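Weekly modeling sync, notes
Attendees: AB, CL, MP (scribe)

Item 1: holo prediction request
CL wants a bound-state model with FE2/S2 (inorganic) cluster before deciding which constructs to order. AB pointed out that an apo prediction alone won't tell us much about the pocket. Agreed to run with the ligand included and paste results into these notes for async review.

Input as submitted:
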Amino acid sequence: MGDVWRDNSLGLDGSRVIDRRIYVDPAIYAAEQEQIFARTWQWVAHESELPEFGDYVTATIAGRPIVVSRGEEGRISAFFNTCTHRGALIAPHARGNSAGSFVCLYHAWCFDTEGKLTSAPIPAAYGDNLRKPCYDIPQVRCEIFAGAIFVCLDPAVEPLERFLGQSAPYIETFLGRHQALGRVRWVMEGNWKLWHENFRDNYHPMFTHAVIGANYQGVKIEGVNLDLSQGHSLLAFPSQGNPDQIKSSVRRLTGRPMAADVTVRARPTAGATLNHNIMAVFPNLDFQNSGDGVLQNVLQVVRPLSIDRSVVELVAFGEVGEPPAVRQARLDRCLDGQTAAGKISGDDNEAARRCFAGFGAVREVRWSNMDRGQEQGVQGGKNDEYSLRAFYSAYKEYMAGALAAGG
Ligand code: FES
Ligand SMILES: [Fe+2]
């Protein structure tokens, strides 16, 4: 498809427009699996989601089923979630406990917490062969940063911390003294990139989300939108409005009080004025937190199921040892706003769905626009699109060969 960025007839800088074929072309979708998902560190779980021996979490990355498992002496390992006999998944659930042995449903081969074959029923028929390493499940690269467990399918990719680059300190701040409280998962109708764009877009909240829009009345829009390089980015801004204002606008819009008392305060972030942070890690992960009042500390990851359907997973975090009232308020607030049926994510789902439906006219209306923010350099105002352009500049590099070959 030639150069999907420069070859536009709009008279716009090619780094500021997006060829909509990247959302709908099956060849590009297939290339993304190998060029992006198989070549980046992919977040799978937080250590606190696997506290006990035998705990596991599964994920599908670039089409490969993977299991991350806690074994002897607390060791975390990752391996492919496929039986070496004839292929069945050995860990069937999104999350579970193997009790130390993954027993395949089909012929009951057993694997330990690191994927090594430990037994097979009626073994005599194999002679001595079961001792061969080919019966153990191959490992997947796995590294942990600040409690966040990532895997990578490509042995040639740089170590995790280098991959995280400038995003690493934010992850440390976000996860320090925190534990996962739970996950929700839903399917979004649309290409995965639309959800990740939504992470990085602060132009939309006051329009898409009635509950936020009301709170913006009369508020000066402040904050930054920053390219952290390597495809990562940060939005940082001060609290917009105040908790009482949020409560009264929710009541006005919904006729009901807010589920959580947002005036319950978490510990304020020392010295922070830009106390809301949304930090996106290339290509499909983001961390959102606020340092005061509005108790929000979530991570989101989006993974494609197909070109037009994606799974979004959201993990809520809370401070270790925080008072029960704060913990409850945090969970209520998260469910109320950030899940598929929440006041915020529900709107974002609909925005993504409408964009994807709009791409039906891709032949006639080919370009999407990401031109906000004209200052030179890597940083602009909160509602600018430096963060989106950061994503697509990395996307372009990862996909270079595939896009050029697309024809
Ligand atoms: S496929 Fe797993 S034991 Fe046969
Ligand atoms: Fe949104």
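Recorded for review: Residues 265 and 293 are 5 Å apart (CA to CA).
Action items: CL to compare against the apo run; MP to circulate these notes.
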